[in-house]
Amino acid sequence: MAWPAQILVTAIAGVAIVAWLVAVLAGLTLIGYRRADISLGRMLFSGWIWFDRRNFRPEGERVWKLFIAGAATFAGAIVAAILVSLVLAQPG
After folding, report:
1. Is residue 2 in a domain?
2. Which domain holds residue 30?
3. What is the rounded average pLDDT for all residues in the chain?
4. Is it the case that residue 1 has pLDDT exceeding 60?
5. Which of 17, 46, 58, 88 is spaced 20 to 30 A from 2 at the CA atom?
6. CB of 50 within 8 A of CB of 70?
7. Is residue 5 in a domain?
8. 43-69 pLDDT, tens digit each
9. Would the CA dihedral through 60, 68, 46, 77 be positive or negative?
10. Which residues neighbour 85 within 8 Å (Cβ) at sequence distance 6 or greater?
């Protein structure tokens, strides 16, 4: 892999790591904003529950948006890393 390509892959990996950390920290903060009728066990074992704003109190909307932004950026960075790797792996 050429030197500029290594920088590109490293930059994408850096974005993915930072986005993952943002999503994890926002998720941990969101636990405190969950509605009273949603247990912590339900949140831990039902992954999609984190993406529905209605499962959190209105005060946690800013944190929820940060969580969504972090998760979406992480997913985008992973897709970008896969695509760049596929392009760079092509011979010639």
Report:
1. no
2. 13-87
3. 92
4. no
5. 17
6. no
7. no
8. 989 889 999 999 999 999 999 999 999
9. negative
10. 9
